[in-house]
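Quick start: what a row looks like.
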Amino acid sequence: MGPLVYLIACEPSGDQLGALLMGALREETGGAVRFAGVGGPMMQAAGLTSLFDVKDLALIGVFEVLPKARMVLKRVAATIKDIEANAPDVLLTIDSWGFTGRVHERLTKRGSAIPRVRCVAPQVWAWRPGRAKQLARWINHLLTLLPFEPPYFTKHGLAATWIGHPVIESGFGLGDGPAFRKQHGIAPDARVIGVLPGSRKSEVTRLLPVFQETLARLAERYHNLHIVMPTVNTVAHYVHEAAGGWAAPVTVIMDDAARRDAFAAFDVALAASGTVSLELAMANVPHVIAYRANPLTIMLLRLFARSKYANLVNILVGHEAVPERLQSKCRADILADDIGLLLRDDMRRVAQRADFAAALSKLSPPGGVRPSRRGAQAVLSLIRK
């Protein structure tokens, strides 16, 4: 009987990475691996029976978590109980430190001997550097996505392995744009604008009204616009509800394969800040990012911030390649000007695409091994030790 890997991933980006890691673990073990834990639809499609629905755990920021603290703690307790009942060979958690950190902390304090691995390093290089010491107390091994991250943790005695970023194997550069347009009745000469308001309720409810007003302004200046909104199951209800009454035709999609084709059909995109910017970069789509969060959450972030930029493309290239419109700058007039500039300025699009290539070249270690495969190898190595 193969090893039992207990996985926890609470958000769509973690769910996608978890599914990739599950596939790689099967490859590495010749299929002799078992899974238990908590995950979303992608991990479930890969063979995981989730302990509970993760939809309510897609939270962000201290002040977004507080109203649901009782529910979060109840789910933490249920997860701890399930881990101890299953006695897995390794615990592998993916991001979502607000939830998974509590699991790691409690297992540590209970004296658990289960090896504990976290995938996706907290951005201690951007804010809250003290969290590196916290991780060193509670986990045994860290898998990082970025090349410069391991030293922030190894200096505190935590083993860390750079595996590369999963966007490299996401397939977002392989979509069929013309086929997507044909399937959805979008004219070949239409200007397709991707609108991606996030994967959390708090993001979507704050950003969609601004994005709708932005597109209304753009529709006054440009004809033949078509809006495509890829979304995920955690917020699909809110996106569908808000998709009526826009100034241009709207197509909402949820299927993961269709999402890649949709990206290939975009002329430009307007997106919430997050991993989606790297996916758009993989698809070579010029874009602008925007974000609004609870003002108190932002106040805390700014208090501890150590990075000039929020967007990973910008961090990797060292300048604002992708416009960042956060908080007070997240306004329809500013966003409409930004998107309009990308629509009409060929050189601006060329420059952004060159920066995409430069940023993406830094996301995978040499040797040609997929990030998920490197991650699987590290996990299995820890089990063997």
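That is the whole record. Residues 201-221 form the longest helix (21 residues). The chain has two domains: 4-164+365-384, 177-360.
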